[in-house]
Write a structure and sequence with these properties.
Number of helices: 1
Helix content: 10-25%
Strand order of the largest sheet: 1-4-3-2
Largest sheet: 4 strands, antiparallel
């Protein structure tokens, strides 16, 4: 018996190896978290001795569909100075000149135990 699969012409990012689609809303914020963590650790004198743990995400808005092959560019800035190891970050993801996603993130910087 032969079953024909219906594949939409444009798939949302990312796509698993087996061809199934995963939720777009779960992947772009994950990439924003990782890039924001790198940016926050740049403000620490010895970043290799610290880890970043994200505490919350606020005001997440998805403005544009991201498809396989799109290149995301990020604009990330601290909203206020880091206090007691807690950073508040605003992050935006762009596809070309088009805003795809934006969010405010709160992260804690913790010194690694040796």
């Amino acid at each position: 018996m032969y079953e024909e699969k219906i594949i939409p012409p444009k798939k949302a990012m990312p796509q698993a190896q087996d061809g199934t689609l995963r939720k777009f809303a779960l992947r772009v914020p994950e990439v924003i978290y990782q890039c924001s963590g790198i940016m926050v650790l740049r403000s620490v004198p010895d970043p290799e001795n610290y880890s970043t743990y994200f505490m919350k995400i606020d005001n997440a808005k998805f403005k544009h569909k991201v498809v396989p092959g799109d290149t995301l560019q990020f604009e990330i800035r601290l909203l206020e100075p880091i206090r007691r190891g807690v950073a508040l970050v605003e992050a935006k993801a762009f596809v070309g000149e088009t805003l795809a996603c934006e969010a405010e993130l709160m992260a804690q910087i913790v010194k690694n135990k040796k």
